[in-house]
């Protein structure tokens, strides 16, 4: 379990999943997650996130490769792994007629060493919903109930599959704060998400999944390194991109102009921004809707998809 001096709570080597009919949803992926780390599997719909998470949870056997969770095979040694993990599936599927408190009580009855239900419901912001039936909860409240149930057993490892789908901006941020607090207390978190912002806010390390393969992995800084930054602004009437300092000499890789807004991608953000702003200052030009942002996961994500499409087309 000890590699590089870290205890790897999750180890995945050359993992494959093949569905009936022969479709290969997971095509040989490898990664590891250290204790107390939030690791995100980031990918578009159909990239293979849920297929991977289900294997980690021991819900199915892999077609190939090896998984260790807390040192055990989660499928063959389910009894050793299950009590130490918390699982928030994509679809909770709890009886609609039960109230929130009844659902938590029922779940606690099946959970070894369960925390008090009220404490856990309070933690996810459902303290005032004890008497509400599951069917009456909003989509976001249901996700929070799913999270509460995953936390009942005070798990060492938490699997979260799209935990904030349906939550409004505030609910999403509350969940992120809670997940970070759990990580800070030593919980290891495996998060599957297609929200770039979620991975950006939460992940200590991540892997970008694309068509069942890992296209990039590392810390967010490592994954975005080498990707271009973006800058956009509106030119006032009478000004055109040709009036700007020569963009190619400033590290700009491409730019577009729709008659009003200039959008560019640059590998030298500071030089580009300085040159454009200095030009505007000297020319007495007021740039509208100025937006400058350094390379983000979005850029890496879109770049990977673009590169793969280009390779496929070639
Ligand atoms: N039971 C199944 N039988 C056949 N194909 C399946 C099955 N379940 C999933 N797939 C396919 O496997 C691929 C990966 O699906 P998966 O649900 O793992 O993706 P995902 O990254 O979690 O996407 P999403 O964000 O939409 O949940 C998809 O092309 C999907 O259609």
From TrEMBL:
Pfam families per the UniProt record, alphabetical: ABC_tran
Record-linked InterPro entries: AAA+_ATPase (IPR003593), ABC_transporter-like_ATP-bd (IPR003439), ABC_transporter-like_CS (IPR017871), ABC_transporter_ATP-binding (IPR050763), P-loop_NTPase (IPR027417)
Domain of life: Bacteria
Keywords: Antibiotic resistance, ATP-binding, Nucleotide-binding, Transport
Principal subcellular localisation of the protein: membrane
PROSITE patterns given in the database record: ABC_TRANSPORTER_1 (PS00211), ABC_TRANSPORTER_2 (PS50893)
Keyword Cytoplasm included in the entry's annotation: no
CDD domains in the cross-refs: ABC_DR_subfamily_A (cd03230)
A single GO molecular function term of this UniProt record: ATP binding
Subcellular localization(s) per the UniProt record: Cell membrane
Residue span, ABC transporter domain: 10-236
Bilayer topology term: Peripheral membrane protein
Keyword Protease among UniProt keywords: no
PANTHER family per the UniProt record, alphabetical: ABC TRANSPORTER ATP-BINDING PROTEIN
Full protein name: ABC transporter ATP-binding protein
Taxonomy of the source species: Bacteria, Bacillati, Actinomycetota, Actinomycetes, Kitasatosporales
């Amino acid at each position: 379990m000890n590699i590089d001096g870290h205890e790897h709570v999750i180890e995945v080597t050359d993992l494959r999943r093949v569905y009936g009919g022969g479709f290969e949803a997971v095509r040989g992926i490898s990664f590891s997650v250290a204790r107390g780390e939030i690791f995100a599997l980031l990918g578009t719909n159909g990239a293979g996130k849920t297929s991977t998470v289900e294997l980690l949870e021991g819900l199915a056997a892999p077609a190939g490769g090896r998984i260790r969770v807390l040192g055990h095979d989660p499928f063959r040694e389910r009894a050793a792994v299950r009590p130490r993990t918390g699982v928030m599936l994509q679809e909770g599927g709890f009886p609609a007629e039960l109230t929130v408190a009844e659902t938590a009580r029922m779940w606690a009855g099946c959970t070894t060493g369960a925390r008090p239900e009220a404490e856990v419901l309070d933690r996810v912001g459902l303290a005032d919903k004890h008497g509400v039936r599951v069917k009456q909860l909003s989509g976001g409240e249901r996700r929070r109930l799913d999270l509460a149930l995953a936390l009942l057993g005070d798990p060492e490892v938490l699997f979260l599959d799209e935990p904030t789908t349906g939550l409004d901006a505030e609910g999403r941020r509350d969940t992120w704060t809670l997940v970070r607090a759990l990580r800070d207390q030593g919980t290891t978190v495996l998060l599957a998400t297609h929200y770039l912002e979620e991975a950006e806010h939460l992940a200590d390390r991540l892997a970008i999944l694309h068509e069942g393969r890992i296209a990039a992995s590392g810390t967010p800084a490592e994954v975005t390194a080498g990707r271009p930054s973006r800058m956009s602004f509106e030119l006032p009437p009478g000004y055109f991109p040709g009036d700007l300092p020569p963009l190619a000499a400033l590290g700009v890789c491409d730019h577009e102009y729709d008659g009003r807004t200039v959008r560019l991608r640059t590998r030298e953000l500071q030089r580009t921004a300085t040159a454009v702003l200095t030009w505007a200052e000297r020319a007495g030009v007021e740039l509208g809707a100025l937006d400058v942002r350094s390379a983000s996961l979005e850029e890496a994500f879109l770049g990977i998809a673009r590169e793969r499409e280009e390779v496929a087309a070639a």
